[in-house]
Amino acid sequence: QVQLVESGGGLVQPGGSLKLSCAVSGSIFRLSIMGWYRQAPGSQRDLVASITSGGSTNYADSVKGRFTISRDNAKNTVYLQMNSLKPEDTAVYYCNRLTSTWGRPLDYWGQGTQVTVSS
């Protein structure tokens, strides 16, 4: 059973930055495609970024140019660097393994980490 533990969220002003982390249990991490999702109140959970085992990345249009996904296979951790944050980025952020580059989640969800962008 893969466990996902997200961290790094918080309150930030518009235009600010945050870096999220997701620790993943198990040796399969280095072979896995990983993704970051977010869910705002009253909205569905949407995929915003993904990274393959080889480091290729994809982004939703809403975050392209502002967010950067990366991974450290030695630490079984995937990151999401978020810059130029906007109030509409406010959401709970989750990570998960993906079935494909922009596919469906594979595992049970972790607790997520809250990101609030407000002045």
Describe the structure.
The chain has no helices and ten strands. By secondary structure, it is mainly β. Helix content is 0%, strand content 47%. The strands form two sheets. Strands 2-10-9-4-5-6 form a six-stranded mixed β-sheet, with no helix packed on it. The chain has a four-stranded antiparallel β-sheet with strand order 1-3-8-7, with no helix packed on it. It has strands spanning 4-7, 10-12, 18-24, 33-39, 45-51, 57-59, 67-72, 77-82, 91-98, 113-117. It starts with a strand and ends with a strand.
What is the element layout, followed by pairings?
Layout: E1 4-7, E2 10-12, E3 18-24, E4 33-39, E5 45-51, E6 57-59, E7 67-72, E8 77-82, E9 91-98, E10 113-117
Parallel strand pairs: 2-10
Antiparallel strand pairs: 1-3, 3-8, 4-5, 4-9, 5-6, 7-8, 9-10
